[in-house]
Amino acid sequence: MVCKVMIVDDEEPARRELQHLLGGIAGVSVAGEAANGQKAIKEILLVKPDVVFLDIQMPMGGLEVARMVNQMKKPPFIIFVTAYENFALEAFEVHAFNYLLKPIQEEKLLQTMLWIQQHLEKEERSKVLQRIPAEKKGRLVMLDLKDVCFFCSWQEKVIARTYDEELIICYNLKTLEERLNNDFFRCHRKYIINLTQIHEVLPWFNGVFTLSLKDNKNTEIPVGRQRVRELRELLGLVK
User: How many domains does the chain fold into?
Assistant: First the structure.
């Protein structure tokens, strides 16, 4: 996963230097920057970065920005970057993840970002579903996702289709799309397919196609026009 970072410092050379250092760290993308606290808050709400590097002494200081950012439902990691040691206690009172002194030491920056990336990856893994509760003949069972050929929305319910069964589940398609692993793909507004369960790709017309799945009915699933290119790339069908 890519870790989105924002840099907030009223000195442009300092922003450029930090951007240069972060550019050398794999999996890190600088998604925004700001030269003062007011702009920083607007950008943070818009960009929703994973990490914010904050200078302390600037118009609307970094400590005030951190206090406001901490009120977000899911605040980013705050890392203070400053030339002054005497703000460290206040920084950690506003839940700073780290406190780096200028000039920034590359090794300390790298270690800080590695800690954050590991935390984010662990958090992401915890969100991924492995099994889901499903209704089967009036009973609640735990369904292994590897057994699911596809999910479909039908009459205000979501159905999970396995090789020879259809089970009602409690998740909607949007939640499933967010929490399923990369084996699953939202090919249509009403369908999510298991890519490992595709039996055959059936050309249709105007570059659109349908998919035949590996259930006992070889169910054919439509692919939405806007999802065709992405699916072709996933299946290696793009020349």
Answer: 2
